[in-house]
Amino acid sequence: MNDRSTNDRSDSTNGSGDRMTTPWGEHVLSRHPEDPRDRLRAWDASDEYLLGHLAERKVPLDGTVVVVGDRWGALVTALAAHRPVQITDSHLAREATRANLARAGAEPGSVRLLTTQDPPPDRVDVLLVRVPKSLALLEDQLLRLAPALHGGTVVVGTGMVKEIHTSTLRLFERIVGPTRTSLAVKKARLIFAEPDPALRRPANPWPLAYRLPDEIGPLAGRPVVNHAGVFCADRLDVGTRFFLRHLPDTRGVGRVVDLGCGNGVVGTAVALADPDAEVLFTDESFQAVASAEATYRANEVAGRAEFRVGDGLAGVPDGSVGLVLNNPPFHSHQATTDATAWRMFTGARRVLRPGGELWVVGNRHLGYHVKLRRLFGNSRLVAGDRKFVVLKAVKE
Ligand SMILES: C[S@@+](CC[C@H](N)C(=O)[O-])C[C@H]1O[C@@H](n2cnc3c(N)ncnc32)[C@H](O)[C@@H]1O
Predict the structure, then answer these.
(1) Which residue minimizes the CA distance to atom 27 of ligand 1?
(2) pLDDT at 114 over 50
(3) Which of 22, 128, 149, 297 has the fewest beta carbons closer than 10 A?
(4) Do 238 and 251 form a contact (C-beta atoms < 8 A)?
(5) H/E element holding 267?
(6) What range does the domain containing 80 cover?
(7) Of the candidates 193, 217, 246, which is a domain's last residue?
């Protein structure tokens, strides 16, 4: 699926990023990982709108400036002289930010990079929010930051018009204070919220736990813990449900990877069925890996496990794994994720030992069998229904 906005498209053909012009200078920015075939820009009109507003209105960028949800580091790169703190859920965003800051010649340490799992700063004087795709993540982040706001904190949100809904504004109202929006410019909009120190805020509902339904057989009633923003945080995804019903017997296979683990329900199911299993849970989202660890611990599993935030299987040694389990993402950072699935499958082939297997669940129409055949030379249908297939490819 491809929901790129034309706004995101790069018209440049240079291979190492595009030039963003801001009131703070010109910056060459790129996403991470850079993909020369899929030239998507590392910023959009909502970043430009916010930066233009801060400069035009001479918003004082004094004290602690916090930037939440900066997609690829465009905002903190432009504002590096103000020593901002970036808070992100994404390993890819963080890597892009590091590269963009280095390219801009930012003084090392001038931007503090925090994850959504780190404690936020105690006091925030300027809060800039690039509205995330997940409303839940926005809710969680605003609630975590709210105690650090004061009557004088400047709060400005930004996003593309299609990303800002009544529910988004309601969250700012409920958690920060009176909220209004700007006119739309190049299909982007700003959100202005005035902190109200007397506001009675709701309790943070995240992380949220649910129990697996009866039809999951031996896993029925098992808890699944979800931090805000993880894939299918409030119920079991239908594809995952199908996968759980067709997981392989892992006895004797060696190391198992739950690749793109989300809340970790797949890897935890393996560990519950096979106490000798050694499972690596990995995801590019900090919220996901924290959820996977919480799910694993809540199930009091006996085996060995490792939890790692990273890009696909980067850092996993060649030939060290017996089984990779994967429900690939179909949206990522507003871009087509065919490329992510391909990188995940390529990584799986690299880390599998000869005879090792990659098991993939996906929507039937995504045609993953074509990719698997091209990479592995084989692909077998393990199970299928009207909507989903579970496929297996063996490393020869
Ligand atoms: C469809 S969800 C599957 C989650 C979980 N395995 C399940 O079945 O419920 C895909 C997961 O891939 C993760 N992901 C996306 N891009 C990634 C990347 N480059 N490296 C690792 N994980 C990634 C997403 O954060 C998301 O948790």
Answers:
(1) 262
(2) yes
(3) 297
(4) no
(5) helix 265-273
(6) 4-193
(7) 193
